[in-house]
Every structure is written in C-alpha cells, then in structure tokens.
C-alpha cells in the first residue's frame, strides 16, 4: 500500500512479500524440449515455447487485438517456470514442493499509461480476450500489429548450464542435504536443530512486442539455505546462511558446501556471546559483501526512474550533481555470470548492461524501463523486470554494488574509536521520497579503540539515503559480491537481486541499540 | 459464503484427488482456486494503469507410502495435469518416510457451523470501469483538498476489487468451498519538504463489502493530512519514552508476537514462547481471541487451510498465553491436539478511550504512526524496528519525528502494555486498537 520497498534474505523476503510457505519446488515435470533462445529463420522462430503451441500467428493476432484501441505499443510476456524445493527437518528430507507457472501477460502502453491483463490459457481465444482487456487503456482507432517478427539471436549467455534442472533427478539432491545436516551437527555440539531448504527453477520467458521483436531466454535459478538452532546453558540462538545463483548442480562445490556449514554454525554460536549495541549515532563500518544492502536501500530504489519521472524520489533533482566523495562509484549490473541478479535480457526484451548510478561521486544514470527511457529520451538500461506474467514490468535493480576504493580494511577499522562493525544482515527497507532507510544487522562487532571487540546481534540501523552517502568517507579495495539469495520487493512484486560492496566506513548513522 | 457457482472448481478438485489416488497416492487433498482481480490506478489527474485478469490454479497435498509433498500448478490442460501428478508422485517416492504426515483425522472436519459469514458482496459483479475511475478520481480530489500551501508533489490512488473462490476436497472425506469479495482503496501522497526531502504517506481501506469502504473524499483527505504531517520531521534524541502506536501500525507488533506462536516454531525450538503456555507474557490488558466467524470479517472462515473446523480460540487471557497455532503435522510431532495452523480474525478486549484521550493521559512520549524495516528474533524475542510518528507533549500531538528506532525484547515489551484503545483497525484481520507501552528504548541523535 505504501511506497516502501525492501530487500530480504531467503524466507524473510518471502514472508515480507506475503508469499506462501515456500515458493519453490523441484524439477520433475516437463521434460520435453531442449534449450530455448533463438533459432534460424522466421519459420522456426519460437524455441522453448513451441511445446505449448505458441507460434508466430498466435503472437501476431494477439498483438493486433492489443492494439485494436490505438495503443502506442504492446508486448506479450510468456513465462513457464517450474520451481521445486526439498526440505530437511529433524534429520530427514521429508517434504518437497513444486510450483508450475505457465501463462502470458499482455501489456498495452499509451503515452505513460498502461493496460494489463494475463491468462494461463495459451489459446488464441483466451489471449485475444486478455489483449482486448488491456487494449482499453487507449480509446482510438486500431493500429496495425507487426507483419513480421524478428528473432533476437546472439543475446549474451550468462548462465549456460551443463545440465538443466529439468534433467537433475531428485535423488541427486538428497546426498547434498543429508551431508550438510550431519556436517552441521558435527561442527558444534551446541547445534540442536538443523533445517535445510534446497530450491531450483527451470523455465523460460519469451517477450514479443509490437515492434516485431521476439526474444526468448532460458532462466535457471537455485538456492540453498542452512538454518540452525544452538543451545547453551538453557539459552537458544538461531541463524541462517544461504547461497543462490543462476547456476546448476555444479554450483554446490565442496568448498561452497563447507562454507555454508561453517558460516551457518559460526554465525549462530557466536550469538551466545553477543549483545545489542548501545543506541544512538555512531560510526559504522560495513564489512565487504552483503553490506551492499546499504546501496540497495540508500540509493538503488531512489534511482529507479519511475519514482523520478513522477517526482517522488529524493533523488529526483540530483542527476549530474555530486552526492558523495569522489572515490564512491556505484553500479547496477545485469551482466555478472551466474549471479542471482544476472539477466541475459530484461522482461521487456531489452539488453541489460552495467549501469553507472554514481561515478566519481556524481549521480549519473537512473535505472530505466522502456516507459521511463522514453520519458527521459534515453536508451532503456535493461532494468524492466517483473515477478511473473501476472505483473507489468517496473524499473528494478539487478546486481547493485560499489566499486573498490583507495583504503584498506585494516585502516578503516583502526580509524574508529567507538562504533560498530556489521557483517551479516537479514532485511532492509526504504521510504523513497523521504529517503529514510533501514537495514537489520544479524551479526557484527563493537569497535573500541580501533579494534573489533564484543560480538553484537539483532539491531536495526536507520539513516537517510543522501545524508548517509555523503558520510561514506572511506572505501576499501576488497569488493565482494554477496552469494546470498536476496529478493527485492516493490509494488508487491519480488525479483531476485544481488548486492555487494567493499569494506566502507559511514562516519555517523543511528544504531537502534539499547541503553543510550 | 456460499457454494453456488463453485461447482466447476469442486469438479476440478475431486478429479485431481481421484487422479492422484489412481497414480499411486495413498491419500491426497486438492484445492482448486479462481481469482478475479481488477485494479485501477490513477495518478495526478489521469488514469495510470488498469489491470484485470482471472487467474486459476490447483494445489495438491500428496501422501505416498508415508511420504509427503505439496505441489501447485497453473497449467490445467488435462494431459499436462496428468503428467504433473505422475511426476510429483514419483518425486515424493524419493523422500524419507515421515510417520507424522497424514491428512487430519476426519473428526476435525466435523461440526462445521452453518453461519453466514457475509463475505461476498454481489456489488462486485456490477461495478463498472466508470465506478472505479470515479472512486480513484475522488480519492485524489480529497487528498488535494488538504493542500493549502502547494506542498503536494504527486498523488497516486488505487481501487482494487477481487472475487476469490476456492474449493477443497480430501480423500478422507473433507469437502468445502468459499467465495469472498474484497475491495481495497488507497491514496499515496508525496509532499515537498522545504529541506529537499519528499516524504510520502497515505491511507487505505479494505472491506468485504463496497458499502463498508469510507467515502473516497474523506479517505483521500486523511491520506493528504498524513503526508503533509510528515513535513519537517526531525530525528529526536535517544531516550526511554512512553510509546503509543496507532491502530493502523500496531499490527506490525502483533505479527511479531503471533509468528513464534506457530507449532512449527515451537517444535523446531525457534520460539521464545516455547514453554510459556499458561504463563504471563503480557500485562493484564493483553486479552486476545482468534475469532473466525466475524460477519464481513477479512479473515473470516468456516474451516482452515487443512479443512479443520474453525472455532473461536482464546490466545491471551489477562496477559497469559493460552494456545499455540498448531496444525495437524506439528500437532503429531508435539503430541498436542491441533488447533489451527493460522490465525483468522483477532478480537481484542477493547479499552474505553480513543486515541486522543489516550494521548491526553500519556502526556509526554511518542505516537508511532509507521514502522520502517527492522525485525524480531523469534527465538529470543529481541526486536529492533525503525519508526516514525510524532512527539506527544502535554497530552497533544506535537512535532513530527522520523529516522528513529525502537529496540527491546518482546517478553518485556508486552508487560509494558498500559493502555488499549476502543478503536479496532477494521482494514486488517488483526483489528488492532491503539496500544500504549511504557518505558520503550528509542534511538535517535
């Protein structure tokens, strides 16, 4: 309801997005067909979606119906997604979830107005009916649809899998879960409960628009979360570590699996020694990696062009102005191979690149979908994304991170007399216009006289985007893109994103601790 | 509530259960659903976006040789569905056996009341595009009418109406359907703060019946007032203060109390309320019941997601925890009788005063009107939440504050509940009144 946008980690994000118990599922269905993507010649232009009876005639007739009331532009977004997850609880992989989504969304744009409809029936009647519904945003004479469709081939392939998730048998996943479970119990005697969730997706999207452009992309995804409860002297603590990427089964290397156990158990057991830090303003050092949540909330959402086009973002009048120290460079990048936030093509069929949000401290580019790009008379940046065929696209982040800076991690920590160091986070949120944002710290340390001392836990940090960016006064050279499974929520739609940052110092921000 | 016109869904669910049994499931339950959704969005004097669709789907719980999976699909083509069920059963066979996974005992389906919940408004079927557009237009006008100084930058309003139908069938004798409508109206207003910030606030209303929505102009006016009220907000000093939480925002606190009441959280040792049944968790003013049969209630139901017959259930009496939300599975694991895995409507023992009188009693403190991010650790009860609202001075609302935070532990917070309002928030199934807590840690400057 309110224009508050958030990012969250794993199930936190799902709960905040109002989604069900577990969104994901397992790949046992729909074995047919090879990889999608373009193929040769107009007679054979539909790859993946041909299996559902989608052909050029169906697309052209639907687009014609979509433009029957004089819309400027229309696109169709076909999606097939099979999501499976297997869960381990109390020592056994004893539940699995599968969700199959198949449908098409029809969007009609007139100026900056949007008509939208969708259907799960990929038949001419159902699609034409949805198209006529969406068409009603306009009220004029019909415009012709495309006579020919041009298949976009040769789009970059950033997540080619040796074996798609549709070819992985459930038996191949079980040993991973069972191995992690016993390793977690073995890692520390205090561990008393372990739960695991292993999710994977296979499927594809097809975008066809009234300019005759047609592009398909096969989009895999996987994630794995290990959550454990530990007990010590009658006290309990719990924490989670997760990894995610547009990757296949080989993502789960021995190294990565070892790290999952080490991090989940270590982040849990250290909480027995942890305190909530004092309340009030103080210097905060953010560890390299998932602290990129700062960028997502403090600037990323505010740079989404829809908020600026409407004049409702705190950054609406700051383009080409200096907003941070000159060593601050922030990008939103769809091109990192196998990253959770990577895309070969956005959900409007545009190619994503590496978009500079802040270059040498100067605000440079908003994140655009096609509607805002037209408004600002710039090229779309490939940020038009949507949760599924049930939603119209919006400008959304992909992988948002800060480039390395001139300082060293040790000198940054050593520079703080009294403050905190934050290393792990669960969720964050922002008010786009006022600029206030928060992020919730699960693990960190007090800094006393330039040294990390007592562990801290469970504290929310609150700041104001532009004010905090001005106060980022040290940036280290140790950029890490976090491997965690972040989901960004906006207007009720969740999309997968990545984030990263080098170690940075924020000179002063409000820490929501206790005992001021 | 009625089962008319759900025949089609009933057939889909029955056939899916039959098919699952034919393909090797020993037990199965299926829920077929269909939702018609229309949303009209208006921005700054013109139509911004209209979306409209009827979506459908089928979800199944499969019990195969003592093994379990839950699957869902929107692809209902007969061949695709048959293959989906076959493949899902094959996947289920690979899992570990789980003796606790069975359908609910049929006794829990019994004694379903015949009460009319009145959750379907026939008006939804006759609303026209013009009706919807008039509403969103009037919402904007209401918001703009509050703007005497030209501070409003943008107004986005929306009207959504939904008809949701579901029918559930289980292989051990449950059948039941539900049809309900819901209307949502909202206005989001951005204002220009002279210091460059563009605070946004708004208001919304949710109702089962169109006639229960407030009129568009007054809802819009409240949205405008809320947004303009944010102008000039400052960060207050860190301090321990009395906190009033308005009825719209209080649901955030209540949801962090209800989460750890789930049977799954208790069984998995992830709940600070584990072992607290029958113990004092809140002050004597925390008196809360789960009440499924509220007429026109947003969370009203005759049976829950598993088919368990819904009944009124005390949650807290005089601050003492009376029950957990226990579904069939965790009930078996905990050796406890299932209650229900989820809440329906909450019913509070209300106080006698409205917010203004409560603030007059409070004298000095903070009125929280919104939370921003933050979280609560369900295992320990520790929480830390971003807040905005107003200082209360001399019993009256004073300057706006923001960019602040509250922290504490829930086992402490709920005992500090010193006043409950007479103003349940009807736009949420949690129906929270204004709540006042003493001695809350605020962080700011």
Automatic annotation (TrEMBL), chain A:
Domain Metalloprotease TldD/E C-terminal: 280-513
Taxonomic superkingdom: Bacteria
Domain Metalloprotease TldD/E central: 166-269
Residues passing through the membrane, by range: none
A GO cellular-component term linked to this record: cytosol
GO molecular function, one term: metallopeptidase activity
Example GO biological process: proteolysis
Every Metalloprotease TldD/E N-terminal domain range: 75-138
Assigned keywords, A-Z: Hydrolase, Metalloprotease, Protease
PANTHER family linked: METALLOPROTEASE TLDD, UNCHARACTERIZED PROTEIN TLDD AND PMBA
Family: Belongs to the peptidase U62 family.
Protein name: Peptidase U62
Automatic annotation (TrEMBL), chain B:
Residue span, Metalloprotease TldD/E N-terminal domain: 33-91
Gene Ontology CC annotations of this record: cytosol
Pfam families reported for this sequence: PmbA_TldD_1st, PmbA_TldD_2nd, PmbA_TldD_3rd
Residue stretches making up the Metalloprotease TldD/E central domain: 126-229
Biological-process GO terms, alphabetical: proteolysis
An MF annotation (GO) of this entry: metallopeptidase activity
Domain Metalloprotease TldD/E C-terminal: 242-444
Family as reported in the entry's similarity comment: Belongs to the peptidase U62 family.
The protein's name in its UniProt record: Peptidase U62
Organism field: Archangium violaceum Cb vi76
Upper taxonomic lineage: Bacteria, Pseudomonadati, Myxococcota, Myxococcia, Myxococcales
